[in-house]
Amino acid sequence: MQQFLVSGGATLKGDVVISGAKNAALPILFATILAEQPSVLSNVPELKDIDTTFKLLRIFGAEVSRDGHQVTVDATAIHSQMAPYELVKTMRASILALGPLLARFGHAEVSLPGGCAIGARPVNLHIDGLRKMGAEITVEAGYIKAKASRLHGAHIFMELVSVTGTENLMMAAVLADGLTIIENAAREPEVVDLARYLIALGADIQGAGTDTIRITGKEKLQGACHTVLPDRIETGTFLVAAAVTGGDVTCLNASPAELEVVLEKLREAGAEVTTGTDWIRLNMAGRALKSVNVKTVPHPGFPTDMQAQFTVLNVVAEGVGMVTETIFENRFMHVPELQRMGADIQLEGNTALIKHSDKLTGAQVMATDLRASASLVIAGLVAEGETVVDRIYHIDRGYEQIEHKLKGLGANIQRINAPA
Ligand SMILES: CC(=O)N[C@H]1[C@@H](OP(=O)(O)OP(=O)(O)OC[C@H]2O[C@@H](n3ccc(=O)[nH]c3=O)[C@H](O)[C@@H]2O)O[C@H](CO)[C@@H](O)[C@@H]1O
Ligand SMILES: C=C(OP(=O)(O)O)C(=O)O
Question: Where is the binding site, in residues?
Answer without folding.
Answer: 22-23, 92, 305, 327
